Amino acid sequence: MHNAVANLTAARERIPDHTAALDGIDRSLGNVRARLAAIEQAPAVSLTPAEMTKQINLAAQTVRTEDRRMLDIARAALDRSAGQIDSVVKRGQAADQQIERQIWSAAAGLLAGSLLCATLPEPLPDPCRPVGTCPSGWLREP
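The structure corresponding to this sequence follows.
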């Protein structure tokens, strides 16, 4: 019996020490427990599928409202820019029309002046004639 107990003691001494590995496993399990506790505390876990759907829809509606507001701002800025471009184009067209009217007016004045000079015998004094003398056709001898 003494030999059997001695053999058991020797067998026990040959078993490797797993204390370090077991400590590592215990630490890992502790980390897993802490993570599970954090997950259990999360509000999403306590929500029912219907409540989660409501919250998702509410968040989506909030985002869509913000997107709509940003699109309205961008559309207004684009409209303002288009209006400014239109006004610049209209000013350019008005300037072109003004130049065209001035050309037509000058041509009409030149034509009217030419017609007036051609139809009237001598409406204006001759600049080459000395002052105080009359044109030859005005003087008649009695």
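The chain is about 80% helix and 0% strand.
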